[in-house]
Amino acid sequence: MTDREVDADGPDLADPTVPFDHETVRYDREDGVAVVTIDRPNARNAVDSRTALGLRDAWKRFDTDEEALVGVFTGAGEHFCAGADLKRMDLEDREEGWLGCSRMRVEKPTIAAVEGHAVAGGLELALWCDLRVAAEDATFGCFERRFGVPLVDGGTQRLPRLVGRGRALDMILTGRAVEAAEAHDWGLADRVVEPGETLAAARELAAGIAEHPQTTVRTDRAALYDGLGESLETGLQIEAWHGTKALGTAAEGAARFADGEGRGGEGVE
After folding, report:
1. Which of these is catalytic: 78, 96, 136, 144?
2. 49-76: buried (b, 16+ CB within 10 Å) or exposed (e) per residue?
3. Which of 18, 56, 187, 201 has the most CB within a 10 Å radius?
4. For 122-144, what is the mean pLDDT?
5. Which of 23, 124, 230, 252 is catalytic?
């Protein structure tokens, strides 16, 4: 099934004014937090072609939805995502990536809520997010190693940037399972919570981020990503360029502070 055939089935789901009605992907927004859910629990949320297109549309919607400030990425049921659906093998190398969104860059913060397995392409989707909240019994791993499937959704690039070259090679070459505690020690998991609590914890984290002035949340986030791999001198120039776009917000914040808001660390957790 081609993009043209799928897209011809209905309205543009990336349009925030159109109800998001998709067979295997859900998009729900409450206040400023949008939740994108892979809804194939019987397949451990493995991604087939239809699901990849749904993820593409959901994250495009998130990026254009002015009411959505932070995105949470999760899977229905007991697992985050087991990667590509190897029983179907119907994915295509699209502009946005094999799994639908791995080459997309959204302009707002994203958080993965990881229950159970985030393995193979599921690990790559979790790495696509800015932060990861994992259950105590969550498992990460390049499980595609045993089947000879390459990492083509960002794993070879994002994983070493996050955990370092040695640890990334450990995961990529061996294909071994990395449990939540080790993932947290490495910085692969940013928060570890009780099983069944990851979505609630990710929502809470997202809501806290959404409370901050969003202009500087986004410019600082963009400066960090744009500066990766650059020299310090170039990185400082990138930071300055992004920072100048937030000077109005900074002036407003300084005025609030001068009026007494936030004195003594109030509002900081």
Report:
1. 144
2. bbbbbbbbbbbbbbbebeebbbbbbbbb
3. 56
4. 98
5. 124
